[in-house]
Amino acid sequence: MSWLVTGGAGYIGSHVVRAFRAQGIDTVVVDDLSSGRRAFVPEGVPFVEGSILDGSLLERAMAEHDVVGVVHLAGFKYAGVSVQRPLHTYQQNVTGTATLLGAMEATRVDRIVFSSSAAVYGTPDVDLVTEDTPKHPESPYGESKLIGEWLLADQGRATGLRHTSLRYFNVVGSGTDEVFDPSPHNLFPLVFDALLAGRTPRINGVDYPTPDGTCVRDYIHVADLADAHVAAARRLDAAEPLEAVYNLGSGDGVSVGEIMREVAEVTGIDFRPEHGPRREGDPARIVASGELAARDLDWRMRHSLSEMVASAWAARRAASGD
């Protein structure tokens, strides 16, 4: 028996695969490599190259590898870009999720952990977001993730699908030098790429209604995130009760300006970031409580901000051969 990890060749997905292996749980990866990397999949893990839009491929993978559950991470994950590419975003994230659920029903796979997002909240009018905070997504990406949660809930009512959705916040760091975040849109890779190229990193937006004018976010370590997926899968396997959604938040916000200062400290590279305009779809502040996840999924922040930056920097330098 194994768990299927869609998007398992990605930065987050490959950490999830490693977390499952560390707990002795077999996995199989499906990834179309549009943003993932084959080299990120650990040796010995079965790999199926293909899209979640291909229902027949998913059914074959589930049948051939005796899949009992799915961790669904595959999708188009860039909030800002989704504003310019809404149809692509909905195809990948909504049609893709519906296709996956259809393949699961056809093969009688009855449990799923879904990669959702803090983007479902938009710009909350509360200091600390909880799972019950009203949802007002401000981008097609956030909307697509909320629809994904609805699809799971509807399928659960219709077929008895056991499910939970984990709402991610800003995922950073690395659990191994073999895997780094290669995204062209995320903060850490943008800053590191600039430094390695001898350029000055840039902050997008310094006029937000926050203490230093830059966006405030929860930053969580990718290895902590991956462990939460294993805990959720184990509870689903045991048919133990789970909430429909969990925030994987730290309870503490860190601004982009503070991140820049920590990067300078950790890397030893003294710089003052350039200032650019806001990115569309970026809310000013999102900080969330992780109390429910702490109660049910042993969720906690096991890494400091300094450790997040240092591990991400080490993995990025290893990738560039430095």
Automatic annotation (TrEMBL):
Q: Cross-referenced InterPro entries, in alphabetical order?
A: Epimerase_deHydtase, NAD(P)-bd_dom_sf, UDP_G4E
Q: Which UniProt keywords apply?
A: Carbohydrate metabolism, Isomerase, NAD
A GO MF annotation of the entry reads: UDP-glucose 4-epimerase activity
Reactions mediated catalytically: UDP-alpha-D-glucose = UDP-alpha-D-galactose
Give residue ranges for domain NAD-dependent epimerase/dehydratase: 3-249
Q: Which Gene3D superfamilies match?
A: NAD(P)-binding Rossmann-like Domain (3.40.50.720), UDP-galactose 4-epimerase, domain 1 (3.90.25.10)
What's its EC? 5.1.3.2
- Coiled-coil regions listed in the entry: none
Q: Which cofactor does it need?
A: NAD(+)
Q: Which pathway does UniProt place it in?
A: Carbohydrate metabolism; galactose metabolism
**Domain of life per record:** Bacteria
Leader sequence segment: none
The similarity annotation says: Belongs to the NAD(P)-dependent epimerase/dehydratase family.
Q: What's the name of the protein?
A: UDP-glucose 4-epimerase
Gene responsible for this protein: galE
